[in-house]
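Human:
I keep going back and forth on a fold encoding question. Comparing notes only helps if you start from a blank page. Show me how you would write down a chain together with its backbone fold. Write it directly below this note and I will take it from there.

Assistant:
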Amino acid sequence: MNMKAKRNIAIALLMMLLFLQAFIYAQQDSVSKPVKDFWQLMNQFSTRYNGKDNFVKNYSANEIDTLTKKYYIATSEDPIGFKLKIEGEYYGLDSLARNNKGLTISHIPKIGLMKEIISSKYGKNFSEIISVPYYLKVTIISDSGSIFEGPINTRVKNNPHNIFRTSQGNLLAKVEDVIKGKRFFKVGQNIIISYLTFWIAEGRKFFQKGKTYFIPLKPWGLLQGYSKITIDILPDNNYAIYPVENGSISTPGNYFGFGETEDWNLFKQEFTKKYILN
């Protein structure tokens, strides 16, 4: 490769770096206070981490409580801003640094580490459950099918071989109750919940028309600014399918800790007391 070509590549990389920096700084300037507060605390906790798993000895009980509350507030009050902040941090300069040895980043915050610290005091189930920004009770009106189409790699543009296609379900549902997410949903509202059908083990469990469910949800759709919502599948093999029927809720495996079958009103009361932190 001649000197001119090398110089052009170096200039292109520099321009890309400057663009990404401007993009991230713009996001940070417009980031909401809850997300900013959590990010600052996360940076402090990450810097102090010494590589040992005994988090309770590394961080005081009050510090873990503060981290838990700030994490909860950031993910529940501004879930879209939280996701966009992660995209800026992890898929902006970080991806460029990983692919170009001459570029480095001094520190990348670790969301996973923060969840581990929270889990060290409250348990892994707790940290996963409070990470979900929306919990609704809904009745399914219909479930229509469509084709999901998007890039395999969001950083590769205009390449026909970079397209991923698969079956998508679109649940039209009526909101019966809002357990978490009252800023974003109202009782009686109709919503569309999109999901990729391969997320749910085929032949096992599916949402049924006319049935009512307690369902965890989250923003979805990076390329659409997370304007869509989708199911937020917890690691309990229920695929976010918790039927509510005859006044009772079914939660096989007892992931929430209140029994596998319980009166809905009692479950809602206990869930709110334990997992709703504001």
The first strand starts at residue 134 and ends at 151. The mean pLDDT is 82. The CA atoms of residues 56 and 121 lie 7 Å apart.
